[in-house]
Write a structure and sequence with these properties.
heterodimer, A: 638 residues, alpha/beta, five-stranded mixed β-sheet, globular, B: 251 residues, alpha+beta, Ubiquitin-like (UB roll), Fumarate Reductase Iron-sulfur Protein, Chain B, domain 2, 2 domains, two-stranded antiparallel sheet, 10 helices, flavoprotein (chain A), steroid dehydrogenase activity, acting on the CH-CH group of donors (chain A), oxidoreductase (chain A), Fumarate reductase/succinate dehydrogenase flavoprotein subunit (chain A), FAD/NAD-bd_sf (chain A)
Chain lengths: 638, 251
């Protein structure tokens, strides 16, 4: 029998970013015992990297804003492929979730009348993002971390033990979800520090593990973003949707090479920064796509007036949704109008006074000064697209965040549907809060409804342990030993070059061949040393997740023969309304437990509820929908 | 552009360890963490280092470079001469787990001992009103990325293990100041700062401020104002007399 440390909880949350922590708070407030398991230290999750803000239609900066406007913006941003019910819940509930944070102690920037200040961002009709300078994510995560501490203090008063009902298992990695029959029964993993195994016996798991960016070479994501939750869920029998949609943030740093990909917040453009090519031209005016014609300023004068008078002018195309801006930058560079290091220029220096830049964008000032020797108050930044976010993820019920596997819930970036084919900036932090809470509630209700607890089988524990330590064994006869770092680099290069921002059928096929080769070679991955804090071993285990998730991305990307949001096919450059209502669903039919097979099937999405559909004008819907789909629209039947 | 950099990296665990010499390629624009990663990928695959964002935002990769507490991801190689040997060691104040990774649980224990934000009982979410100028003082302290370099460098605990139980450290004394200055926090915190969390240990040598990668004025803006509030409360003779006469301290 494998030596395993055992714990029993009502709910286990995997991931301690915004979604995970919000789920913990909710499940604990329902009176359940909760474990939160995270790969890093408590408070270091990727949410700290979020800069610009958290979108919520509080209407503090412009009283015309309301949830319906936010809902419309979100659907437009996602090119109408979003799960409309998720987009509705998100838009309706975001303001309450933000206000709630203030009662936990968050300190957002203020308006003159003392309310929460809101800033402009790409794709949002009105200033909508609650923010703290350009470190909003840090504020969110610290606030929820401190809220959890306050709940632990309450438990200490009641039980004499801070960890009576909420315990943080930091630097602990889950490698497998275990089931009893069809239901979740537990989660198996290891302590990073000691390498010892740990088993959580639990009827409900909330997966809140974030994204997959580490499958790409140029990314704004940290090492944690290896698609663990996506892969865990897939292996447990859940389905992933929309995996072909990967967001390349238009503005990552491009120089020096060691920082390539690090994020430059959209807040720079929200606060007046403009994109320019090597000829000094504000090129975005040439890239307003047909579906957004009429909604954006078509001259520099109007765009500049908009910052002060948004009611009588249209917004600058610098603030088009991210997919549009990223493609435009890509095109400018390709046509030879790029900056010296292969990006374009982002100029805030000539737009705002020095002191104002330092006040509004302190982290950006600091980041460029420290890492690139660039003073952004005096000279333009060089920026280019960087892999930032995956729209695809675990398919969930919008109201309860439940996956198709009983007891398995998902929230935040690792869930799919909410953002459709492209996420608007600022909608991620609000997504975390809205659906983190709903996942906590969903898990709590599920646990309360159970007549008996599922049981983890010993054989499953043994199998999970065996798979986890396999990299310490020499490879089987006839298999070459592989270095996990080398395989990871090859996988990143291949995804970056062949399934990146612009895609073609033959290149994606080449990437799938390469992934097939890595699938064979991953059996030979061998690591040195022992199990105590061994990064080579950790990478070897994360690599199997990155591989299977990359296959989902590549297979779905090959299948979708159109361009939409975060999926651009050079060989199918148009958006095709026949594809709008089609979801590509990834499942695993089985295969090698190390890296199971991936299958992709198409299925139609439920049609939007009529009252939501009627929030849009027919003329706009016609740009996205087929004629048949709109036959019953009241403007048609009237 | 590239050159061979000379590094000494401390390797070992809480039992024993030693500096190990490495020669590793360094390229233009790189930071110390890039070189540590290159060592992992090419020479020492099991070299343990904690890191996350590699952008100075998460505070994970704290260590000491040539004896100075720093974030490895924000320490540019260009600040050293090419022929200089760079010594990288784990934070000294916390027990080593392995190589550059230390056990920072002291900080999480201290975080739990600070009473949490206490809003007025009748204030509903959505009704919070605060002026920008009033939130800015606490906002400065909330820039903290919890890298714990201030805790590491503070001489009260750096070589005095015995002080750890009674001393919250600059990061968490600053947390008390942050809540004390929060426009809507109603808890009274200054007495406890002195009696429970060890504010009196601090003799304002500003080492914490010097190493803060976020440039927070920990000493001037958090610790000294807290000391002043404590002094007003505990040592002002008129307040002292008032407390005696009206027995305020006993309620």
């Amino acid at each position: 029998m494998t030596e395993v440390e055992r714990h029993s909880y009502d709910v286990v949350v995997i991931g301690a970013g915004g979604a995970g922590l919000r789920a913990v708070i909710e499940a604990r407030q329902r009176g359940l015992s909760v474990a939160v398991v995270c790969k890093s230290l408590f408070g270091k999750a990727h949410t700290v990297m979020a800069e610009g803000g958290c979108a919520a239609s509080m209407g503090n900066a412009n009283s015309n804003d309301n949830w319906q406007v936010h809902f419309r913006d979100t659907m437009r941003g996602g090119k109408f492929l979003n799960n409309w019910r998720m987009a509705e819940l998100h838009a309706r509930e975001a303001p309450d979730r933000v206000w709630e944070l203030e009662s936990y102690g968050a300190l957002f920037d203020r308006t003159k009348d003392g309310r929460i200040s809101q800033r402009n961002f790409g794709g949002h009709t009105y200033p909508r993002l609650a923010h703290v300078g350009d470190r909003t994510g840090l504020e969110l995560i610290r606030t929820m971390q401190q809220k959890i501490v306050s709940l632990q203090q309450e438990d200490y008063k009641q039980y004499g033990d801070y960890e009576a009902r909420v315990k943080v298992f930091a630097e602990c990695t889950i490698t497998e979800l275990l089931k009893d029959g069809g239901r979740i029964a537990g989660a198996f993993g290891y302590w990073r520090e000691s390498g010892r195994f740990v088993l959580f016996e639990t009827p409900a798991v909330v997966v809140a593990t974030g994204g997959i960016g580490k499958s790409f070479k140029v990314t704004s994501n940290s090492w944690e973003y290896t698609g663990d939750g996506h892969a865990l869920a897939l292996r447990a029998g859940a389905s992933l949707i929309n995996m072909e949609f990967v967001q390349f943030h238009p503005t990552g740093m491009v120089w020096p090479p060691s920082v390539k990909g690090i994020l430059v917040t959209e807040g720079v453009r929200g606060d007046g920064g403009v994109l320019k090519n090597s000829q000094g031209e504000r090129f975005m005016f040439r890239y307003i796509p047909d579906v957004f014609k009429g909604q954006y300023a078509d001259s520099e004068d109007e765009a500049d007036r908009w910052y002060d008078d948004a009611d009588n002018n249209r917004r600058t195309p610098d603030l088009l949704p991210r997919d549009e801006v990223a493609r435009a930058i890509n095109a400018e560079v390709k046509e030879g109008r790029g900056s010296p290091h292969g990006g374009v220029f982002l100029d805030i220096a000539s737009r705002l006074p020095t002191e104002e830049i330092k006040r509004r964008l302190p982290s950006m000032y600091h980041q460029f000064k420290e890492l690139a020797d660039v003073d952004i108050t005096k000279e333009p930044m060089e920026v280019g697209p960087t892999c930032h976010y995956v729209m695809g993820g675990i398919e969930v019920d919008p109201d309860t965040a439940s996956s198709s596997v009983p007891g398995l819930f998902a929230a935040g970036e690792c869930s799919g549907g909410m953002h459709g084919s492209n996420r608007l900036g600022g909608n991620s932090l609000s997504d975390l809060l809205v659906f983190g809470r709903r996942a906590g509630l969903g898990a709590a209700s599920y646990v309360e409804s159970l007549a008996e607890r599922p049981v983890v089988a010993d054989a499953d524990i043994t199998a999970a342990a065996k798979l986890a330590v396999a990299p310490f064994d020499p490879p089987a006869d006839g298999v070459d030993a592989e270095n996990p770092y080398t395989l990871h680099t090859e996988l990143q290069q291949s995804m970056n070059d062949l399934v990146g921002i612009i895609r073609k059928a033959d290149e994606i096929a080449k990437a799938l061949d390469k992934l097939g080769e890595i699938r064979k070679r991953i059996r030979g991955v061998t690591v040195e040393g022992h199990r105590q804090y061994n990064p080579g071993w950790h990478l070897a285990l994360d690599l199997r997740n990155m591989l299977v998730v990359s296959e989902c991305v590549a297979q779905a990307a090959l299948r979708r023969t159109e361009s939409r949001g975060g999926h651009t096919r050079d060989d199918h450059p148009q958006m095709d309304s026949q594809w709008r209502n089609t979801l590509l669903v990834c499942t695993s039919p089985g295969g090698d437990p190390l890296a199971p097979d991936v299958a992709v099937d198409a299925k139609p999405q439920d049609p939007m509820r009529q009252d939501l559909l009627e929030l849009f004008e027919l003329s706009e819907l016609e740009k996205y929908y087929t004629e048949d789909e709109l036959a019953d629209h009241p403007e048609r039947t009237a | 552009m590239g050159y061979d950099a000379k590094l000494k990296v401390w390797r070992g665990d809480n039992g024993s360890g030693a500096l190990q010499d490495f020669t590793v390629e360094a390229n233009e624009g790189e930071v110390v963490l890039d070189l540590i990663h290159r060592l992992q990928a090419t020479q020492a695959p099991d070299l343990a280092v904690r890191w996350n964002c590699k952008a100075g935002k998460c505070g994970s990769c704290s260590a000491e470079v040539n004896g100075r507490p720093r974030l490895l991801c924000m320490t540019r190689m260009s600040v050293f001469d090419e022929d200089e040997t760079i010594t990288v060691t784990p934070m000294r104040t916390f027990p080593v787990i392995r190589d550059l990774v230390t056990d920072v649980s002291y900080n999480y224990t201290k975080a739990r001992e600070i009473p949490s934000f206490t809003p007025p009982k009748d204030l509903e979410p959505g009704d919070y009103r605060m002026q920008q100028v009033d939130v800015e003082r606490s906002q400065e302290f909330r820039k903290c990325i919890e890298c714990f370099l201030c805790q590491n460098t503070c001489h009260v605990v750096r070589d005095h293990e015995e002080n750890k139980t009674a001393f919250a450290g600059p990061r968490f004394l600053m947390r008390i100041a942050e809540l004390e200055m929060h426009p809507l926090d109603v808890a009274d915190r200054s007495d406890e700062a002195q009696t429970e969390h060890g504010l009196g240990f601090c003799n304002i040598t500003k080492c914490c401020t010097d190493v803060c990668p976020e440039g927070i004025h920990i000493t001037d803006n958090a610790l000294i104002p807290m000391k002043e509030r404590v002094a007003d409360r505990r040592y002002d003779p008129i307040v002292w007399l008032g407390n005696k006469l009206f027995r305020r301290g006993e309620n």
